[in-house]
Amino acid sequence: MQPLLSVPVHIQTCRALMVVSVLMGFLAIIVSVVGMKCTKVGDNNPVTKSRIAVSGGVLFLLAGLCTLISVSWYATQVSHQFFNPNTPVNAR
């Protein structure tokens, strides 16, 4: 097993993006629950409540975008290494 800091940069970056995505998704769940019409938190101003709900949706989209970037980048790196002529045949 490799130490954490000796793995390639694209794997470290993908890990970081996935951690950011999970944290952002968790925050989006909390913000979206607060912004729902069925909750009583911030019930005084419906405009503010709808803005909170929209910001939760934006956080969900950003979390999905981070995941999409991470998975796509990792898959691209795998396919580049697979089709690299310098890669030994038994390592593919």
UniProtKB/TrEMBL annotation:
Compartments, record wording: Cell junction, Tight junction; Cell membrane
InterPro entries, alphabetized: Claudin, PMP22/EMP/MP20/Claudin
Entry keywords, A to Z: Cell junction, Cell membrane, Membrane, Tight junction, Transmembrane, Transmembrane helix
Annotated membrane topology: Multi-pass membrane protein
Residue ranges of the TM segments: 16-36, 57-75
Primary residence: other
Coiled coil: none
Family per similarity comment: Belongs to the claudin family.
PANTHER family: CLAUDIN (PTHR12002)
Protein name in UniProt: Claudin-19 isoform X1
Species whose genome carries this gene: Huso huso (Beluga)
